[in-house]
């Protein structure tokens, strides 16, 4: 186990080499840490700003051994880290934060909602379905229209379809690949919000102000923060964050996606045991952003204050939208964050801007 708080000069291991890993690495470097990145793709966005790069599959035993040898603490930038990799790291005596429990819960939509409800964090009604034969019954019980989602490996709106009538359920189940699914009641939400929260090694919790999020085609397009919301709504989000983070004995930053109902109640849509796209506004809207906050938490440092210093509109730059970089760089009160990806495929997250205005 590492000696905590981790001293500057120590090495933070990061599983995953995308933009979240890159921004984590930059924040870690600011605090004097070296970073080792494990990522199968050579020349990844994170590897290009890290001291050490291990190019190997996430579950490659030699790659994981190299990561464990180099790192004092290991974290990750995505939730689909194979359970076998986490077990392997544990067997090597590595310290992984957030831990295996948070990953297991976040990787399976049924385990996630079961945990959330047990912790006292409300969600939509749901049912687990393992075969076509029980799909119609589940939709009839939950009420149509219902949303059917694969239990595992869905992201950015992929692996999910609406079921308009219970009779359609077996066909939708087949169209999703015949894999285990969750059937969710339709949330009658007025808007989507999220909250970024951190829990330290000592159990201290720090919660950022709410963000309001707009998606297109299942992909986040825009967040505004702090979201204009009644104090009761903000207080609910804070309470929910405490229940979830304490319930998982969590260490690190978590993104919690919420639905706001017409009566002001919040439901949890899903949790991401990592830094989150809807938290990018904190880079320019707060004293200490979600990336440094995550590094502080896993390194056993004190958490930083989370109050907003500015209002931020965060816009993702998807695909060739990034080509507008000269224009964006010339805009006043606009901070440009580019991920250094070599190729701008359609819909690919290439960067983002944070547009600032006074609170
Ligand atoms: P997810 O992949 O679970 O985050 O879902 C992607 C998007 O689908 C969400 O951001 C919502 O806009 C929508 N969505 C997900 N679950 C529900 C639900 N139970 N009811 C209504 N809309 C949903």
Keywords for this structure?
binds adenosine monophosphate, alpha+beta, 359 residues, single chain
Give a structural overview.
The chain is built from eleven helices and 17 strands. Helix 4 packs across helix 5 and helix 6 crosses helix 7. The strands form three sheets. Strands 9, 10, 11, 12, 13, 14, 15, 16 and 17 form a nine-stranded antiparallel β-sheet that branches. A hairpin with a 2-residue loop joins strand 11 and strand 12. The protein starts with 10 loop residues before the first strand and ends with a strand. The longest helix is centred in the middle third of the chain and has 17 residues. It binds adenosine monophosphate. The site of adenosine monophosphate (AMP) has 13 residues, from strand 14.
How far the N terminus sits from the C terminus, by CA atoms, comes to 43 Å
**Biggest beta-sheet profile:** 9 strands, antiparallel
DSSP summary, beta strand count: 17
Using the CA coordinates, give the radius of gyration. Answer: 20 Å
Report the uncertain regions. none
Order of helix and strand elements from N to C terminus: EHEEHEHHHEHEEHEEEEEHEEHHEHEE
Bound molecules: adenosine monophosphate
Count the helices. How many? 11
Give the class from helix and strand content and strand pairing: alpha+beta
Estimate what percentage of residues fall within beta strands: 25-35%
- In round numbers, the mean pLDDT is 97
- Tell me roughly what share of residues is in helical segments: 25-40%
Mass-distribution shape: globular
């Amino acid at each position: 186990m590492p000696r905590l708080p981790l001293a500057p000069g120590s090495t933070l291991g990061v599983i995953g080499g995308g933009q979240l890993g890159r921004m984590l690495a930059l924040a870690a470097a600011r605090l004097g840490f070296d970073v080792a990145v494990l990522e199968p793709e050579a020349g990844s966005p994170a590897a290009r700003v890290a001291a050490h790069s291990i190019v190997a599959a996430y579950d490659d035993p030699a790659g994981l051994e190299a990561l464990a040898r180099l790192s004092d603490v290991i974290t990750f930038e995505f939730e689909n880290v194979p359970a076998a990799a986490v077990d392997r790291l544990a067997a090597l005596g590595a310290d992984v934060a957030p831990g295996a429990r948070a990953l297991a819960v976040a990787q399976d939509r049924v385990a996630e909602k079961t945990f959330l409800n047990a912790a006292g964090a409300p969600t939509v009604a749901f049912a687990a379905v393992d075969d076509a034969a029980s799909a119609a019954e589940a939709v009839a019980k939950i009420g149509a229209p219902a949303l059917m989602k694969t239990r595992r490996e869905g992201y950015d709106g992929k692996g999910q379809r609406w079921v308009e009538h219970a009779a359609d359920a077996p066909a939708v189940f087949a169209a999703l690949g015949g894999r285990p699914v969750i059937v969710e009641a339709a949330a009658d939400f007025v808007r989507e919000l999220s909250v970024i929260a951190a829990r330290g090694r000592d159990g201290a919790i720090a919660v950022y102000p709410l963000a309001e999020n707009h998606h297109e085609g299942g992909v986040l397009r825009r967040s505004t923060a702090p979201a204009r919301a009644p104090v009761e709504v903000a207080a609910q989000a804070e309470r929910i964050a405490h229940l979830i983070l304490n319930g998982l004995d969590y260490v690190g930053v978590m993104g919690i996606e919420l639905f706001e109902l017409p009566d002001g109640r919040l439901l949890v849509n899903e949790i991401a045991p990592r830094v989150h796209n809807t938290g990018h506004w904190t880079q320019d809207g707060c004293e200490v952003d979600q990336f440094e906050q995550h590094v502080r938490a896993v390194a056993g440092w004190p958490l930083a204050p989370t109050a907003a210093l500015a209002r931020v509109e965060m816009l993702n730059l998807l695909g060739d939208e990034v080509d507008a970089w000269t224009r964006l760089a010339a805009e006043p009160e606009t901070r440009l964050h580019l991920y250094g990806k070599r190729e701008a495929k359609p819909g690919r997250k290439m960067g983002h801007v944070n547009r600032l205005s006074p609170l």
